[in-house]
Amino acid sequence: MFIELGSMLSLAVGKAVYEELEKDDRVSFVFLETGRSNDLFEDRQFGEFGEAAVLTVIVDKKDEKEIFEKIYETSKLTHEDNGIQYTSSSLIKTSFEGSLN
């Protein structure tokens, strides 16, 4: 069974996490979307807005905790206000190889 992990991070941090996760064989898919935010970050390069990244990660449920911690550590959320991280529900129906579809 697969699960979705997500993060809303500053752009620089999001890129660093993406680069780290795309090398990890336990990650089935990792997507990075960029945009601007006016509420998550203190660093605002565009007046009221700062560059942001939305990271979506698909992993097998058995690897959820390790990958979640890897994202947390890589994004330095323990030390800096770089964004937020979350876990969503299990992906019950997917077309991923090896899924329960």
Q: What's the CATH topology label?
A: Alpha-Beta Plaits
* CATH architectural name: 2-Layer Sandwich
Oligomer state of the chains in this structure: single chain
First and last CA, distance: 9 Å
What is the CATH first-level class name?
Alpha Beta
Give the beta-strand count: 4
Number of domains: 1
Rg from alpha-carbon coordinates:
14 Å
Structural class: alpha+beta
The run of helices and strands is EHEEHE
Biggest sheet layout: 4 strands, antiparallel
Taken as a percent bin, the fraction of beta residues is 35-45%
Write out the strand line-up for the largest beta sheet, numbering strands in chain order: 2-3-1-4
Helix-residue proportion: 10-25%
The pLDDT mean sits at 81
Supply the key terms.
single chain, alpha+beta, Alpha-Beta Plaits, 2 helices, 4 strands
Give a structural overview:
The protein is an alpha+beta fold and 101 residues long. The protein has one domain: Alpha-Beta Plaits (2-Layer Sandwich). It contains two helices and four strands. The chain has a four-stranded antiparallel beta sheet, with helices on one face. The chain starts with a strand and ends in a 10-residue tail after the last strand. The model has no long low-confidence stretch (mean pLDDT 81).
